Amino acid sequence: MPCSDCWDQVGERVIEGPKMIEVTNEKVAVAKEKLKEARTRQKSYANTHRRSIEFQPGDRVFLKVSPARGVRRFGIKGKLSPRFIGPVEILDRIIEVSYRLALPPQLSHVHNVFHVYLLRGYKYHPFHVISYPLDQIRAADLSYVDEPEAILDRQDRVMRNKIIPFVKILWRNHPEREATWETEESIRTSYPHFIP
Questions:
Q1: pLDDT per position in the chain (196 positions), as tens?
Q2: Tf2-1-like SH3-like domain: which residues (predicted)?
Q3: Assigned domain for 21 exists
Q4: Considering the domain boundaries, does residue 123 fall inside one?
């Protein structure tokens, strides 16, 4: 079969433009359908671990304190530190995913509109007590400011042929049993005024 694109052949020409456009449109439609199927399949995979969250005005919720990992929250560093404050009341729904909250007076300097991923539902319990001071929460990143109060003990530890000085820190607003061992270098960098 001779090439239909050759210009040097003599004879009757067949106009293939409309046919080629039709074939191309069919292939584009098939590709769009396959992409749509793949998108819905991936969406169903992703939505298995997601849940739709909706709150009504008047509901009470917990507010996430520190979105960043590794931040010292309420004097506890790591997994056991509290990640939410509250409960606080929802005043109204701004859009589908953001809510205006009635923050306590200690947090009046914080903007009171939050995305739904920062909120967790609260079920009323008569014995629930707030056990952390709200006045020491930083407005910038909603993390708790914890200051060292005293050095209770010093110790040198050998780690891989290095001697690393450690200090036992008593944190402000915490009992002595909650004192933690920290490297002297980390305390010196975080609180330069504390260690001379």
A1: 555 555 556 666 666 678 888 899 999 999 999 999 999 999 988 888 877 788 999 999 988 876 444 455 445 555 666 678 878 899 999 998 899 999 887 777 778 899 998 898 888 777 776 655 555 555 555 555 677 888 899 999 888 889 999 999 888 767 788 888 888 888 888 888 887 6
A2: 58-122
A3: no
A4: yes
Examine the domain organization and report whether 105 and 154 are in the same domain: no
Domain extent at residue 67? 60-136
- Asked whether residue 100 is domain-assigned, the answer is yes
Q: Would 161 be classed as within a structural domain?
A: yes
Number of domains the chain contains: 2
- Quickly tell me which residue has 């915490």 as its tokens: 174
> Which domain-ending residue is among 97, 115, 136?
136
